[in-house]
Amino acid sequence: MESIELEPIRDLLVKAYDTAMGEGCTPETQQRIENFEQKHNVKLPSATLVN
Question: What is the mean pLDDT of residues 17-38?
């Protein structure tokens, strides 16, 4: 069952994904991710691609 209240959030996520992950966008390098994690003292989850 899907909540109608979440539909605007889903729309925004789709727009953000299309904008950020469109052509010409390059992924962050592993080194830049590690630098970010160290600088902000966080551990980001590893990305997994879904086809």
Answer: 74
